[in-house]
Amino acid sequence: MKMQTLVIGLNKKPGFTLIELLIVIVIIGLMSSILLLNTNIINISNSPKTLEENFSEISQESIIRGKVLGWYANTNEQAVYEITNEETGIISKPIYSYTWYEFIDFEKEIETSDGLKFKLSNDDLDLPYILFYPSGETTGAKFTFYNNNQKYNFVLTHGGEFLRTDEF
Secondary structure of 146-163 in the HEC alphabet? Predict the structure, then answer.
């Protein structure tokens, strides 16, 4: 009497099984997502953007990275750094920097949420004027840009909104 047996795993045809292919696709997907999360996801370039667009990108980058980002500025450039210690403002690495597109020929004053007023100069970028949190909030600031003929006032709210104001 012959006994019929079910043979599993003996496949005489060359190739991969569906399970093997799915496992490889899952592994590649996990590796690529880890790689993307450890790099700049948002395409931040040195192309001309308004200050509002820059702040929006910084806020998005902070949310995606899950890190506190600091905005630094002087009369010539703006820069964004990842903050490693919020109390001391110690930075770990630059994320990007760019030159001023708007208000290039304007005097620039910033009032932080602490009430400290700064007139931007050509000095080094020492401390962040604004912090962007992964929750989408910021420390906020008031901006005044002026030259001989024009004056512009802006506010970056704690909720990340960038508003033009005529008075503070």
Answer: ECCCCEEEEEECCCCCEE
